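Hey, quick one: can you model this chain's 3D structure?
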Amino acid sequence: MQQPSKLVPAVWGGVIIAILSSVPVISLINCACCAGVIIGGAVAVYLYRRDLDPRVPMLSSDGALLGLMAGAIGAVMSTAITAALGGLSLEWLKQMAELADNPELDNMIGQFSDSALAQGLIFMVFVVNLITDCIAGMVGGVIGVALFGKAQTPPDWQQPPTPPAAQ
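Sure thing. Here's the predicted structure for all 167 residues.
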């Protein structure tokens, strides 16, 4: 029996992780024990389960792998979104510093906007995102298996009779 691809559900789980991790205000959901990343891992399992034969149970290892894949994809996407939004925030800070007419603030913002420093910071954010999103995604995948991974028997299936107990 052919197993469905895990890539598409993992990508969708990664998209959910990226949105819930990097969009301002919505990202506060991750203050509750990385709940956004856990939700993304569980959604990947749910989407995979829809494509799987309903008679086949899912293993915890399937959920962990789906969560790991979703976490890695989400880390890449959320780092990209964070870098893009960070550039916008830097421009906003420069405008605020001009309004404040504070030379020390202008100097600090100028040092921070140095490309080597910004690239190093983005790389550090990526490494932290990758580690935390993969771990929390695996947890979400295992939780998703517990919620959605049970095999379902067809309605016309009947359990065979149990043999009588030996005397």
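One thing worth noting: The helical segments are 7-22, 35-51, 60-100, 103-112, 115-148.
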